[in-house]
Design a protein that fits this description.
The structure holds two protein chains of two kinds. By secondary structure, chain A is mainly alpha-helical. Chain A contains 17 helices and two strands. Chain A has one domain: Cytochrome C Oxidase, Chain A, CATH 1.20.210.10. Helices cover about 65% and strands about 0% of the residues of chain A. Chain A is globular. In chain B, helix 2 runs antiparallel to helix 3 and helix 5 crosses helix 7. Chain B is elongated. The chains are: A mainly alpha, B alpha+beta. The interface between A and B is large, with 92 and 90 residues.
């Protein structure tokens, strides 16, 4: 949709109300902190993506070609760490959550702006420390750090554990900040039944972050202590239990998948609402399903241990509970599809991305259900099927949602519009490349190719070649998308305040917004995304203060 | 149809009874997934065309889903997913309970090879020979880090955990040679930790095993002609070890309890622990009781057994377990109290 003729770029906005490097480094403005996070996570994404391309190049041939086994093992460890801890976990909450949570609540900022800035610096410190530790220590354990391999390995695992601990602290602080903000800073009239679904999803995410992240912190410290002081907690040679580590690790690392997916679901709910011009079908069901996933997600970690010698009974319990996550997710999918019904659908880049998100979520979700069917998991466990499954969920759907968020809120954040045509072709490359990369990996998993393989039997080659080609198409699409957006930053057409005619609360201000978000105090008189009749006028400041 | 699906999905040939069960459910899940995707795509496509936006500020009516629709949205996935779970859990329970007449083979993973040991010999590196049509139970452990014993053609996989025995089993349905992979990342040569399963006709297998035993006996005798135990099976090795290590000071083999439980009839018996929990004294339990005796102690005994971790090798522990297994309950020593 082209920006309105009358679109103008505001004279004053949060970019130019204060200037200078220090005004950014010491800012307490949630929007500026969000943008600094944006820069950091996109850097992590580029680094992780280049590592992935390196891995795929090596796997082009069955025999070792580009790198030796040790380098390869370090590459996939680095790729996993960077993508999980430095990109996926903070991506949507720390960038778009930070930017839009206060705006969706009609607030000026988050509840604890200083803490918000502190979490950013903690994140950067932890990220740099972790990267240094992995590269310097030559860590080759994979991002899962299974003991006793990680504790008996000669590489320096302990500093990496400390790095994860620091990054985790940043997620906890952000989560705490979001929970308090949602409870205390809602504008008058914004009751819980009127919260945008993005806020509901951030809320669920924050609860998981606050409750689960301490566990990975504890695990990290225990592993570090095991290595440094020789505790013997996980080492069978000293009476320890290596499977205990797996329980502790997945107690965090399974819920953390929902830390990545829930915000993505929130983004897609906003995008569908805006471009179908209606509140999401079954708003309450979606809010309940969000909290359901957040809750049940804590009790499914054992499905990572079906072949680790866990008892049959335990496997059954974890299997049933995993199905419930699938049910909640299916409810969401049905509701998003039904949102189109009797709507007014507009085809835009964010809408296309939201549809792709659905596609990846359906296949990523259904293959997840298939993996949780215990007898099937026996064959697929630790094969490329699992690799393809979690990339469908985390890269397929979460990345689509991340890109949808970028393209949906770009005009709001920067006041300019990207070229729809270029953005759409980039998205097409990404979609095709992604499928070509990971569909062959499902088939490789069916064939029985285990994950983390530096070399493989010749029978696996054709599918690996297809996957590598897909990865490069995907990479091309990502860079095209990046360049389209960078171009738009400078030369894009002026977007105007609300180019998508959205009735989400965050659009009730100029693009880009002023320093304290809104020109007048916000009063919420209606649920989000109510497209019945003409847009409701924002009450004047007098009404907002209860003065007639 | 199933042959076509198997090729479409790149599944390896099916060579065990468990593989038949796994693939049947897999096809069901796969076809449902494709069906769900097709329906959702068609419905969305229809809505997309039918409800395209006509005016920029188009107004839409709010639509509140009726309760019946909400129930439908919950019920459909719930019933389908729980149905799959039920079938999968039934098959998994079947898979986790090997028949008692299975042939036992010990598999030990170490960086980066598999060692297979038959209780009465021989040993083999990386190649496991099994008879077709007979249940074979593989008792798996590791000497260093976690490995995972994976035979794609049988659709079975089980982690090898140091200090513990885990088990998997299968009935091979056809003769041939099948790949064994290590599925759990174990370091530098993880991807070269390859093995083979050779499935042979039963008579051929018996002949092979007898010939291999003779050969390894001859080899051992060549190496050290004074070793009279070279021909020893795991059971006789275990008996000798029990003497050497002084197990008899606390454990009898005639069915009478002493400072510790008797070994006769112990294998696969139900034991009540000090915690009140009941366990079956299988290989995993017996091994754990040697390595970490305090972990699951049988009720009614007051002496603490010392740990034999580091004092017994994997092979020695396996020999002791095999010895205990050989002490069947039905032939108590004369005059023994039961």
């Amino acid at each position: 949709m082209s920006p309105a003729e009358s679109a103008h770029f505001p004279r004053w906005h949060f970019f130019n109300q204060t200037t200078g490097v220090m005004s950014w480094l010491t800012t307490l403005d949630h929007k500026r902190i969000a943008l600094m996070y944006f820069g950091a996570v996109v850097s992590a994404l580029i680094l992780g993506g280049l590592l992935a391309l390196g891995i795929r190049l090596e796997l082009f041939n069955p025999e070792p070609s580009l790198v030796d086994a040790q380098t390869y093992n370090r590459l996939f460890t680095l790729h996993g760490m960077v993508m999980v801890f430095l990109f996926m976990v903070p991506a949507i909450p720390a960038v778009f959550g930070n930017f839009f949570l206060p705006m969706m609540l009609g607030a000026k900022d988050v509840a604890f702006p200083r803490l918000n800035l502190a979490s950013f610096y903690i994140y950067v410190t932890g990220a740099l420390f972790t990267l240094w530790a992995i590269v310097h220590g030559g860590v080759d354990t994979g991002w899962t750090f299974y003991v006793p391999y990680s504790t008996t390995s000669v590489v320096a695992v302990a500093p990496v554990m400390l790095g994860i601990f620091i990054v985790g602290l940043s997620s906890i602080l952000t989560g705490l900040n979001f929970i308090v903000t949602t409870h205390t800073l809602r504008a008058p009239g914004l009751n819980w039944g009127r919260l945008p679904l993005f806020v509901w999803n951030l809320y669920g995410t924050s609860i998981i972050s606050v409750l689960a992240t301490p566990v990975i912190g504890i695990v990290a410290l225990l592993v570090a202590a095991e290595i440094i002081f020789g505790f013997g907690l996980f080492d069978p040679a000293r009476g320890g239990d290596p499977v205990l580590f797996q329980h502790l690790f997945w107690f965090y690392s399974h819920p953390v998948v929902y830390v990545m997916v829930l915000p993505a679901m929130g983004v897609v709910s906003e995008v569908f609402a805006t471009f179908c011009r209606r509140q999401i079908f079954g708003y309450k069901m979606l809010a309940v399903a969000t909290l359901g996933i957040a809750l049940v997600g804590f009790f499914v970690w054992g499905h990572h241990l079906f072949v680790a010698g866990q008892s049959t009974f335990d496997a059954g319990i974890f299997g049933v509970l995993s199905m419930l996550v699938g049910v909640f997710t299916a409810i969401k999918v049905f509701n998003w599809v039904m949102t189109l019904y009797k709507g007014a659908v507009d085809f835009t880049v964010p809408f296309a991305l939201a549809c792709f998100f659905l596609y990846f979520l359906i296949f990523g979700g259904m293959t997840g259900i298939a993996l949780a069917v215990i007898s099937l998991d026996v064959h697929w466990h630790d094969t490329y099927y699992v690799v393809a499954h979690f990339h469908f969920v985390m890269v397929g759907s979460v990345m689509m949602a991340f890109l949808a968020a970028v393209h949906y809120w770009f005009p709001k954040m920067f006041g300019r519009m990207y070229s729809e045509r270029v953005a759409l072709s980039a998205v097409a490359f990404i979609f095709i490349g992604f499928n070509l990369t990971f569909v062959p990996q499902f088939l490789l998993g069916n064939m029985g190719m285990p994950r983390r393989y530096h070399q493989y039997l010749p029978m696996f080659q054709s599918l690996n070649v297809a996957s590598t080609m897909g990865a490069f198409i995907l990479g091309l699409g990502m860079f095209l998308s990046l360049f389209a957006l960078l171009w738009a930053l400078k030369w894009g057409a002026v977007a105007g305040d609300n180019p998508f005619h959205s009735r989400g609360y965050e659009w009730n201000t100029a693009s880009p917004p002023v320093q304290h978000n809104f020109h007048t105090p916000q009063v919420i008189v209606d649920g989000p995304h109510n497209y019945e009749g003409p847009p409701a006028a924002q009450p004047t400041a007098k009404v907002a203060h209860g003065v007639e | 149809m199933t042959q076509w699906l198997r090729e479409l999905l790149f599944l390896p040939e099916r060579a065990s009874t468990f593989a038949d069960r796994v693939d049947a459910l897999h096809y069901q899940v796969f076809l449902t997934t494709m069906g769900v995707w097709a329906v959702i795509t068609l419905v969305m496509g229809y809505f997309f065309v039918r409800f395209r936006r006509k005016r920029v500020e188009q107004s839409t009516e709010p639509f509140h889903p009726p309760l019946s629709m909400e129930v439908f949205f919950v019920a459909v996935p719930l019933v389908v997913f729980l149905g799959w779970f039920t079938i999968g859990f039934r098959d998994f329970t079947w898979y986790r309970n090997p028949p008692p007449d299975a042939i036992d083979v010990y598999a030990t993973g170490k960086k980066w090879m598999w060692k297979f040991t038959y209780p009465e010999g021989p040993n083999a590196i990386d190649t496991l020979h099994v008879p077709v049509g007979r249940p074979v139970r593989v008792l798996i452990t590791s000497r260093d880090v976690i490995h995972s014993f994976f035979v794609p053609a049988f659709r079975v996989k089980q982690d090898a955990i140091p200090g513990r025995y885990t088990e998997t089993w299968f009935i091979a349905t056809r003769t041939g040679v099948f790949d064994v992979f290590c599925a759990e990342y174990c370091g530098l040569s993880h991807s070269r930790m390859l093995g083979k399963v050779v499935v042979m006709p039963v008579e051929e297998f018996e002949d092979w095993r007898a010939a291999e035993r003779e050969q390894s006996f001859a080899a051992r005798l060549d190496a050290d002609p004074t070793r009279d135990e070279a021909r020893a099976t795991l059971v006789t090795q275990g008996e000798r070890l029990a003497l050497e290590k002084g197990c008899g000071r606390c454990h009898t083999v005639d069915g009478t309890p002493h400072l510790g439980p008797t070994w006769r009839g112990l294998y696969r018996s139900m034991q009540t622990l000090t915690t009140g929990e009941n366990v079956v004294a299988d290989e995993a339990y017996l091994t754990r009781s040697m390595m970490n005796p305090g972990a699951q102690k049988v009720a009614g005994y007051f002496t603490d057994m010392p740990s034999y971790f580091g004092l017994l090798t994997n092979a020695e522990a396996a020999a002791l377990v095999e010895y205990i297994k050989s002490l069947k309950g039905e032939e108590p020593a004369p005059g023994a109290m039961r």
